[in-house]
Amino acid sequence: MIAYVINPGSASTKLALAELERGENPNLPAQLRLQLTKVEIEHPALSSGHLELGRLIADLTAAAAGWPAPDAVAAHCGLIGQPEPGAYRVTPQLAEWLLLHPHGEHTSNVGAALALALGQERGAAAYIVDPPDVDELRPEARLTGLSGVERLSRLHTLNARLVGRRAAHEQGLRFQDARVVVAHLGGSISVSAFEAGRIIDTTGARLDEGPFTPTRAGTLPTRAVLDLAYSHPRRDVERTLLCEAGFVSLTGTADLRELERREKTDAQVKLAADAFAHQVAKSIGAYSAALSARPHAIAITGGVARWESVVARIERRVGWIAPITVLPGELELEALAEGVGRVLLGQEEAHDWQAPAALGT
Question: Catalysed reaction per UniProt (predicted)?
Answer without folding.
Answer: butanoate + ATP = butanoyl phosphate + ADP
